[in-house]
Specification:
The protein has 2 domains: 161 residues, no CATH class; 166 residues, no CATH class. The radius of gyration is 23 Å and the shape is elongated. The chain contains 16 helices and 8 strands. The chain is α+β, with helices and mostly antiparallel strands and 375 residues long.
Length: 375
């Protein structure tokens, strides 16, 4: 990106905010402005949530800068919150392959970090031309985008722990731009429209939603299928059901999402991401997987954990035993250990017994335990 060849123009805070807002909205984003200083109540609630271990293994959520961005950016005074709606339609199931399992809606497009990133860079460049310091983040920095969305009156935090608003519901991908501009005067909060509805809480199969606008990641299907590394406990398999990557249950049952159809112009849902071929996760090497799914959020769990998730889906549905048997020969022990319990779901005890002699101690122990229990 080219740097300005002339000295920055120092605009008034009001004019600079208006220019940045206009440019962001021209690019198709919903916008809101908030002070960079979070209320003490928000900080305390978050700190208590961390103290209770409800972030599971997501240690990147720790650190003071998430609650105090000025520790890293002392010039920051306000936040421009951007929301890209993603209530796009299902692009359809491709022909061929093994197309089982569900993928969270946000992952039906190329990696949103890459899609939204260049737009934030352009906003940073505009800010520089206006004589404003700015730094943009697309779910990658130490920021509480949802809290800033609430403070900026973009929406409210629903009982499913997501930012939501009338029209777009919860289907919102968030980004934020820290700026040196003074925050605009507040207009009060966006009305909370959840009312007495508890459909998301009742709909969550693992009871991850706590009813106060937060969740316990240790019980969340999205956490287990995307963030968790290693084996997924067997007692969670029935609740995971068909979810291959993420989970949208608490959004699907929300009345505010029934008529949501808006989506940002930069999002184009792709059939191969909405309905991936499970065979890829067992036949591709990790390098080939990375090439095939480059620029997608599937790279976060990677080939190994997508195969792990696929095995749970296959065993829950009791379909495609040959793929499960193939997974028992996988080079990665996490996949082989998951295959042990998947094979047991098919009552393929001979294949399970063969894994008692696996060179990996965890795989061998899984096989021994499954055979001893007969489950």
């Amino acid at each position: 990106m080219c740097s300005p060849t002339h000295a920055p123009k120092i605009a008034s805070d009001v004019d600079a905010r208006a220019a940045l807002t206009e440019e962001a909205e021209r690019r198709g984003f919903l916008t809101a402005w908030a002070s960079v200083s979070l209320p003490e109540q928000v900080k305390t609630q978050y700190q208590n949530w961390l103290a209770d271990g409800k972030n599971a293994s997501m240690n990147y959520l720790l650190g003071e800068t998430r609650l105090e961005p000025t520790l890293r950016f002392p010039w920051a005074r306000s936040v421009l919150v951007l929301a890209a709606p993603h209530a796009y339609p299902d692009p359809g199931v491709p022909v061929g392959g093994t197309r089982l399992g569900k993928v969270a809606k946000y992952a039906w497009v190329r990696d949103y970090h890459r899609l939204m990133g260049p737009h934030l860079e352009s906003l940073e460049a505009l800010a520089a031309q206006l004589g404003v310091q700015a730094k943009g983040y697309v779910d990658t920095g130490p920021l509480s985008e949802r809290s800033y969305g609430v403070l900026g009156r973009l929406g409210w935090i629903g009982k499913n722990a997501m930012l939501m608003r009338m029209g777009e519901g919860t289907y919102l991908t968030l980004a934020a731009v820290l700026t040196s501009l003074a925050p605009a005067e507040g207009e009060g909060l966006y009305p909370n429209r959840c009312g007495k509805c508890t459909r998301c809480i009742r709909g969550c199969p693992t009871n991850a939603l706590l009813g106060d606008g937060s969740l316990d990641a240790r019980a969340c299907i999205s956490y287990w299928t995307i963030e968790h590394r290693g084996l997924i406990p067997a007692h969670l398999w029935p609740s995971i059901g068909d979810w291959l990557f993420g989970c949208d249950i608490c959004q699907a049952v929300c009345p505010w999402n029934r008529k949501a159809q808006d989506f940002w112009q930069g999002f184009q849902p792709q059939p191969e991401l909405a309905h991936p071929n499970l065979e890829d996760f067992f036949t591709l090497s990790s390098h080939a997987f990375a090439r095939r799914y480059a620029g997608t959020v599937f790279l976060r769990p990677g080939r190994t954990h997508m195969a792990r998730n696929a095995l749970i889906v296959l065993s829950n549905r009791k379909e495609h035993l040959p793929l499960v048997r193939q997974a028992a020969q996988d080079p990665n022990p996490v996949v082989r250990a998951t295959a042990v319990r998947a094979l047991a779901k098919f009552a393929d005890w001979e294949a399970v017994a063969a894994l008692k002699g696996d060179p990996d101690a965890v795989v061998a122990q899984e096989a021994q335990e499954v055979l001893a229990l007969g489950v």
